[in-house]
Model the fold of this input.
Amino acid sequence: MSGTLYGVGLGPGDPELLTLKAVRILSQVPAIAYPVPDSGHSMARAIAAPHLRPGLAEIAFGLCMRIDAAPGQAAYDAAADAIAARLQGGEDVALLCEGDPFFYGSFLYLFERLAGRFQVEIVPGISSPMAAAAAMRMPLARRNETLAVIPAPLPDAEIATRLAVADAFCIIKLGRHLARMRALLEQAGLADGSCYLSHVSTPQETIMPLCEAPATAPYFSMIVGHKGGTA
Done:
C-alpha cells in the first residue's frame, strides 16, 4: 500500500503553537519534506525541529517567491517526484507548512501534483493573521464586521478597492512593498492605528505603529489595521 502524505500546519513560528495532532504525526512519520528559500534556512524545519525524531529521511526543495500563479514549476515538479517515490514505497511523508497548509502556502502546489494519486491528510495550523491579533491584543473582527487579507504584491488600485469595503485588514507578503503599502494606507486615511508586525510568535517578534516601521521589511511581516481603531 502507498503511504499517506500529511500536510502539517506548523503555525506562525513558535514551536509550542503546533496542534497535538501535528506533534503526533511528526513523531511518527519516517520522512519529512519542507521548502528552503533561495537564501537562508528553512523556517518550516526550524519550527518543527523540537518535535522531530532522529533518523528521519528529509526532502528539501527550493522555494521560489514569484507573483505568478504557478511559481517554481521545476522545483515543485522535482519535489513532487521525490515525495511520490517515498509514498509509492509505502512510507508516510509529512510536508511541513508554515502557518496553515491551505493559506498562501507552498503546500498548495504539491497538493495539486499529488492528491490525485495518493491519500492526503491536512492538519490545519494557526495562520499568521490569527497570531498577529493575539500578539497585538486586538480583535480582527467583531459581530458582522468583515476582514480582508490582502497580498502586498497586488496592484495599488485593487488593494485600495479591497480596503474600501473591509472593516479590518491584514496586508501580508510585505517585503519590498512596505513603503508602497504605507503610502496607500496614508492616502486612504488608514495609516493611523495600523500596526507593523514581523516574525510574530518568535524571539525576533517586532510590533510597532506603522508610522515607526523600518524602511524595508522581511517576507514574514504584515500590516494589520481596523477602521474602528485598536481599542
Remarks:
- The chain has a mean pLDDT of 92.
- Strands lie at 4-9, 31-37, 57-63, 93-97, 119-123, 147-151, 168-172, 195-198, 206-209, 221-226.
- The chain is about 30% helix and 25% strand.
